[in-house]
Structure formats: structure tokens, C-alpha cells
Amino acid sequence: MKTLFAGNRDEKILTMARREASVEGYAAFQPITRGPVVAFLGIVAVGSFVPLYVLWQWFLRACPPLVKR
Amino acid sequence: MKNSDFDVVIVGSGPSGVQAAAAAVRHGLKVALVDVGYIDDRFATLIPDRPFSEIRKSDPNQPRFFLGEPEEDASDGRTVGAHLTPPRRFVVRDTEELLPFESNGFAPMQSLALGGLAAAWGAGCATYEDYELEWAGLPSRQIYEYYEAVAKDVGVSGSKDDDVSPHVSNIENLQDPLDIDSNATSLLGVYASKRAALVAKGFKLGRPPLAALTKPMGTRQPNPYHDMDFWSDARESVYRPRQTIRALSREPNFYYLNPLLVDRFEETDGRPTTVIARHVKENRWTQITGRSLLLAAGAMNTARIVLRSLARYRRRVPILCNPYTYVPVLNLGMLGRPAADRRHSLVQLTGIFAPPDDPRELLVAQFYSYRSLLLFRLVKEVPLPPALGLLLARLIVTSLFIVAVNHPDKPSPRRYLELRPHAGTGTTLVAHWEQTPAERKQQKMRERQLWRRLLALHCLPLHTIPLPAGASIHYAGTLPFSDDDAELTCTREGRIRGTRAVYAADGSPWRYLSSKGLTFTLMANARRVADIVAERLRARGHVAA
Fold first, then answer.
1. Cβ of residue A52 closer than 8 Å to a chain B Cβ
2. What's the distance, CA B185 to chain centroid?
3. How far is B462 from chain A (nearest CA, A)?
4. Using CA atoms, how far apart are residues B17 and B93, in angstroms rounded to an integer?
5. Which among A28, B107, B310, B333 has the fewest CB atoms less than 10 Å away?
6. How far apart are CA B512 and CA B528, in angstroms?
7. Phi and psi at residue B405, in whole multiples of 5°?
8. Given an 8 Å threshold on Cβ–Cβ distance, is B379 in contact with A56?
9. CA gyration radius for chain A?
10. Which residue among A17, A32, A40 places its CB closest to the CB of B376?
11. For residues B445 and B15, what is the distance between their CA atoms, to the nearest angstrom?
12. According to the model, what pLDDT value does residue A3 have?
């Protein structure tokens, strides 16, 4: 699956895995837990997950030249 | 090489095999356990006995065991056995080559490891209820006695007095339950406030019985709450069959024979049973003889050995396997709240749902919190750009449960195995596994009912992850108990019809597969079969009374 951002998704996940499984990557992968604001953002994020996904799929279909390298 | 004069030969070192061996050794029988017996020879010494968070903060070696060598984990797209981290991969080593298998979408996990699939077992020790044992064809009163014996041997912790304990923890020999984590504590609090309404709707929540210690037992130590249970067996808190093998190896009447892959058995009138096995490293054949043979290679491989030994090619035998679903669930009560660092990685809570259309066909939902499997695995599953996926994962991870739902299974003519000749490998096991539209519809309906109970607990199911058949890793029913004298069935004692002294000591004879997880009942039944065999040998004067 290609994404808007350059590069293959599997490669990006592999890069992320390498960063996560390292001492240097510790902080960047910690849970974000900052009380009510985060809770609100979380609810918004989850609540908009489905519409975002639908939009994203529509975008992939509608604008292939922008998406594919 | 010829190994002879054993009273009992046991095939397979999984939970059934080792418990049968323990019972037979206790009877004074001369026991051989035949096994391939792969072990983890790469990772065990690499993983420090420290908490996950400390390892993450300071261990420069962490990529070696978190990602594997080479980085086998990050790009692995497996859905069956997704919990198999690199240090657990030895469990499935060489199975594709040595246990050839074909199917139309049934994707089982097989093992040639020391301890079999239980070398990566989640330690669930649910007991079956009377009616479930009866449906499986097992004698309930006897099995309850064997449950206690197994619990003493493996060490089981759990609750005796919560709502699910009458369904899953029906044993006296229980250590105190493991502490649950912040996420599970929050959910149990909501359940307590809505308990009456949920119980009236057939849903109960409580702590699972687990083969993980909260008190020392011999050389094994209580769970250190390091949250490393997917990666290592720190302090041997979690039971693994190799612990029983290690203890038995000190007994003069026990012999562990490996690395041997059993091909078939032969019985000639008036002579002991002969097992023909291949040395997998030296590729030579060997024979082991014994007065009785106990097959405990797992339902599929026990069937493979029996069909090959009796030359029953293209003959269908049934297969049972729990239909299985994963659902990421958001516990809204924990959203944005920090989680305590001290936790274990095993099942935190067990939900039991009695569907209104048949309240005895229970659905079992196992609640796992998510942390030590690393966030990148979550991000991989989220259909968003990785950076956005990571942000979402960091926001929800302390409130996330992965709920694993098992459905019960019973025999169907649409689900079967057969052994076929194969030009390359000699024979191959072929599976056909299919649900009827009515079964699929019923499964979906029950899941939707369960999701409604979760919503009442302020838990939001995000997405049902479809898993191929076989993903539950619970297999049984290939040589079913029968009172009729039918070929490829078992007597109530577990003897395989068409043989003189060959017994199925695993789940092969069960006629019903409860959704509760079968391992604890497998172990109890294996002891029962070993006791039956010992009694018969004693009655024939082969063993001192």
C-alpha cells in the first residue's frame, strides 16, 4: 500500500520498529497520557477514525498521481 | 539402534504427553517419551530478567530479541500465531517441512518443540463444566479429580469467588490470583457497578485461572510482573512442559528420546507395539518397542500417525477447532490515564457470555492489555499513514484491550482431515474446514450480542479482525469417542479401535470443543488415560502391584 508520504509502507513500519526497539527511541513511543485534553483528543481521534478512513480511501482512488511515486 | 522393553511409549512432549508420562512414571512403569524436541537456542540467554520498561530504556541488545535476527518480526504478516515473538518462533520450527499440510484456508499451527505448542502457551487453565465434559465424551467426576492433580503439578493461580470462577476455576488447588493491571482494574470497577444488569444479560467478568505462580513452587518463582511474558520465561513462573520433563529426567524409569519424529506404529500379534521414528538430524530410522503406546502428538498429528499406520489413505476423519476472532477494544474509562508499570502480559480478565439462543454454548472473551508487543505492530494494522497511526497508538494504548473471542465447535461433515499419498513427502495431511451459512450467521449474531455487553462496560469495539480457521490453536476430535465399534474411533478409555494397545492421550477423541481453552483438560485427561493403561498392565502382571 502506498501512502501520500513518499516511501513504501512496509519500509516505514520497519524503520519505525527499529527506532522503537532502541534505547534512543524510548521516549518517542511512550503513551500520551495528559488527562482530559488527551482523553478528548482520543475520543475525537477514534470518533473520526471511520470517516478519516473513508476519506483516505476516496482520496487514494481520486488522486492516484499524487499518491504513487 | 533399537530401544525395547518399555512398558509405555509416549509420542509428543506437549501438555498431554508430559502429564501422561508423569502419571505413568509414578506408577513405576518404564516410560519412553519420543519427541523431536526443538528448544530456543538463540534468545534465552539474551533477555535480561528485568522489567520491560527498564529494558526499553537501557538495554542496547533489545533489537536482537524484540525484532529477531535478522529483523524477522517487523515484516512478518502472519495472523495465525501473531503473538509468536522471535524468542518463541522455535515452536514452529521445521513444521512446514516435517509435518506437510494442505488446506482450503484452514491454517493450523503445529509444533515440534520441546513442550509442543505449550512452549508458547498463554497459560490459561480453565476447567470445563459437567455438561461440557459430557459433550466431549469425558467422565466428569474423574476429570475433576485429575484437575486437582494437574493443578498441584503445574501450579495454578486464580480467583475462587468471582463471577466466572464457577465456570472456569472449579478447583481447590489454587494459588492467589495474579494482580491485574490498571486497564483491567478500571474495567472490573465498571463491571462491579453494572454487575446485576450484565449478569441478567448473560455476561460475567472475572479473573482467569492461569498456570503462573504467585507463590514459590520448587525452583519456580512467583511472577515478577516484568511484562515480559511474551518474550521470556522469567523465573519459570509460567508452567512449561519442559519443567515436567526436567523433573522426570531424574527418575530412573523415564527416558526422553529425541530428536525423533514418529512416522508410524506396527502391532503384531503377541508382540509389543513398535514405533518407527526418524532421527531428524542424522536422517536414520529407529524403532522403539513398548507394551502400550500413548499418542499425544496433538489431534492432527495423532491422526496423521494413525492413518499412516493403518494405511487409511483418503479416509475422512473429523476435526474440531474453535472459531476465533480478535477485536481491539477501547476502554473509555482509561482513555488519557497513565497505566502502572508493574504488570504481567498474560490474560488479564475473562468474560463469559451465555448467548440467549443457547446459554450453554458459552462464548469466552479473553482480555489482553497491550504494551510489551510494541507499538509498531499496532501501527501496522491501522489503515493510516504510519506517523498518524503511531500518534493514535500512543493516545489509546493504555486504554486498549485486545479481546480474543472463542466460539465452541462440534463435528460437522464439512470439517475433516484426510491423509493423501504425496510424491515428494510420502504423505500429506489435507484439511477441509468450512462453516455453513447458518453457522456463520449464528457466530456473527452472538458476537454482536457480546459487543453490546462490552458497550455497556464503556468498552468500544473498534474493528473485528478476521482470522483464518485454525487460528485459535485449539484442535481436537479427529478420532472421536464412540460406543459403536467403528473404525478410526476411540473407546471410552481412549484406546484407538483397530489397535490392540494404542491409546489417544490428547484431544483426538473429544466430541465437543468448549470455547474455554482445552489445555488444562488435555492434561487431566492424559493422566486419566495413563492411569487406565497402568491398570491394564498391572492386571496382566506386567507391572508390580
1. yes
2. 26
3. 8
4. 19
5. A28
6. 18
7. -110, 125
8. no
9. 16
10. A17
11. 34
12. 43
Is the bond preceding residue B318 a cis peptide, omega within 30 degrees? no
Give mean pLDDT, residues B82-106.
91
pLDDT value of residue A2: 41
Nearest residue on chain A to B390, judged by CA atoms?
A29
Minimum-distance CB partner of A21 among B63, B332, B460: B63
Chain B residue at shortest CA distance from A45 = B392
* A23–chain B Cβ distance below 8 A for any pair: yes
Question: Averaged over B102-106, what is the pLDDT?
Answer: 90
Average pLDDT rounded to a whole number, residues B144-154: 97
Q: pLDDT of B273-313, one tens digit each?
A: 999 999 999 999 999 999 999 999 999 999 999 999 999 99
pLDDT > 50? residue B113: yes
| CB within 8 Å of B240: residues ≥ 6 apart | B115, B118, B119, B121, B233
To the nearest 10°, the Cα dihedral for B255, B260, B263, B268?
Answer: -30
| Residue A2 forms contact with B (CB below 8 Å) | no
What is the pTM for the complete model shown?
A: 0.92
CA distance B349 to chain A (A): 22
Query: What is the distance between the alpha carbons of residues B232 and B328, in angstroms, rounded to a whole number?
Result: 24
Q: Which amino acid is at B263?
A: D
Interface of B with A (CB under 8 A): 56-60, 62-63, 66-67, 71, 73-75, 330, 332, 335-339, 374-376, 379-380, 383-387, 390-392, 394-399, 460, 462
DSSP state, B137?
A: T
Supply the DSSP string of B314-363, one letter for each residue.
T--EE-EE--EEEEEEEEGGGTT----S-B-SS--EEEEE--TT-TTS-E
Q: H helices within B36-164, ranges in order?
A: 52-58, 62-66, 95-98, 130-136, 140-154
pLDDT for the residue numbered B466:
76
d(CA B19, CA B524): 8
User: CA distances (Å), B308 to each of A46, B415, B429, in order?
Assistant: 53, 20, 10
CA gap B519, B522 in Å, rounded: 5
| Number of residues in chain B | 545
Low-confidence winner among B37-46, B68-77, B140-149, B250-259 (lowest mean pLDDT): B68-77
* Total CB pairs under 8 A between chain A and B: 105
Q: What is the mean pLDDT of chain B?
A: 94
Contact B10, B30 (CB under 8 A): no
pLDDT in tens, B198-225: 999 999 999 999 999 999 999 999 999 9
> Would you tell me how many other CB atoms lie within 10 Å of the CB of residue B29?
24
**What is the mean predicted confidence (pLDDT) over B239-253?**
97
Model pLDDT, residue B545? 56
pLDDT score of B29: 97
What is the pLDDT confidence band of residue A33, given thresholds at 50, 70 and 90? confident
Residue pair B142/B528 in contact (Cβ under 8 Å)? The answer is yes
Residue B422 confidence class, pLDDT cut points 50, 70, 90:
confident
